[in-house]
Amino acid sequence: MKSVDSTFEERVRASFAQQALMKTIGASMTKVSPGEVVIELAFREDLTQQHGFVHAGVITAIVDSACGYAALSLMPPDSGVLTVEYKANFVSPAKGERFIATGRVVKPGRTLTVCSGDVLAVDEGKEKIVATMLATMMRLSV
Amino acid sequence: MKSVDSTFEERVRASFAQQALMKTIGASMTKVSPGEVVIELAFREDLTQQHGFVHAGVITAIVDSACGYAALSLMPPDSGVLTVEYKANFVSPAKGERFIATGRVVKPGRTLTVCSGDVLAVDEGKEKIVATMLATMMRLSV
Amino acid sequence: MKSVDSTFEERVRASFAQQALMKTIGASMTKVSPGEVVIELAFREDLTQQHGFVHAGVITAIVDSACGYAALSLMPPDSGVLTVEYKANFVSPAKGERFIATGRVVKPGRTLTVCSGDVLAVDEGKEKIVATMLATMMRLSV
Amino acid sequence: MKSVDSTFEERVRASFAQQALMKTIGASMTKVSPGEVVIELAFREDLTQQHGFVHAGVITAIVDSACGYAALSLMPPDSGVLTVEYKANFVSPAKGERFIATGRVVKPGRTLTVCSGDVLAVDEGKEKIVATMLATMMRLSV
Asked: In a mutagenesis test of the A interface, which of B41, B49, B119 is the best target, namely the one with the most A β-carbons within 10 Å?
């Protein structure tokens, strides 16, 4: 896919830096390309649910941000992005040392952009899919 | 709705107490009845997204837990609960002093339970819906 | 909820009359109020899936139309409506003589309206929920 | 992906042949491989919504069946399949001569299988995505 200008990475990273939650949970943005963004998270005990796996809400938070910024990367410079809605399936327990969330634009649009995302767990060096998302993002004029 | 025995509240609260994420974000369980659970969260700057509202992932986390425990409240004593999938719509910015997530069982089942949930923001004393969820929960034998 | 003018029912019924699929499957609109629409369908063998129940796609079609028209009923006269996305859970087999789909507006908006819907089966005189939907509808200027 | 035995195509096609709705709308199954199934539909006026495009419910029906049979193709011989839930985004109007729905298994499971699907429209020889789905299917012992 093609971004509208060369500032897309800078704009995406600046906005991500303002997501206080991402700092709180220790997530970092490891890749920004037009229409695709990767966010990674290390396992932490204080992010778990009752079985010791990372809570679905945290897994959702990183793939939601990855999808939102994938959408933003294709929007014009004066844009903000908002999550309209998403659906996620949790296909394996979120168990591992590290989690890699990738968001991709399926269909860009003037107002609404549809994205898909997934989260892989890296557990003892092996990758395994833990969640998959389908999301609708909205452009805001800022 | 009717729980199978009188231990449902104790079982739900014991499991919730083990969700480390809920402590990390400062969420508390304020109501447990058969088929309905309420979880509340105070606004905190370190849970926000780029516009200063609470991140969709955090809103999702509390209503996911509320839905999961609403499902668990109707299950037999030897049960655990797992989120199969959910879909959430974000209908207003998560702006306010406090957020009230309610999860309700729509259809209990032996293996799968369908729940709906919503999150209200309390902003200067007024309540406003910020999100609505439809979720599928799965019973585990433990 | 409140419609913007008194023509809402006429506008909704006129648009429904143009949905050729609804005629094809034999669905009829039985109630139109501001923010809530009911569509009913009689069981027909030619609408079934492999187990003899009504196909999920047909159940989805009637509750999608009910949700879309619930949204349209609150929009100004020069509006059309389009389904952005939906999610549906199928909680019991679609077995019965008749199916009643109700769509309700959860949150109206200038561009996007969020609706919820459900489908009841009437089987030997008893009502049973077969599906529940959460949907996003979009206003078009026409 | 790998099917458990060589009868998967026969089993999938036999079950599809019993979906009366697919005959009613004129859909045909054009490809069955392990974990992936394609269903095609020709445009027909009697399947449209109010703007003359194919109704979202019909688009959903073909991609739901494609996803369900993709799941069934990986299940043991004594299995039936049921749709637990799905979410679909409609990214362009369903306009064209022909529609191609592909269902793919994302994660097979003993009880639950997660699938994704999409529908392409063929319009004057060009393909365009009209819908994308994320679905949960359940195995039944038959």
From this structure: B49
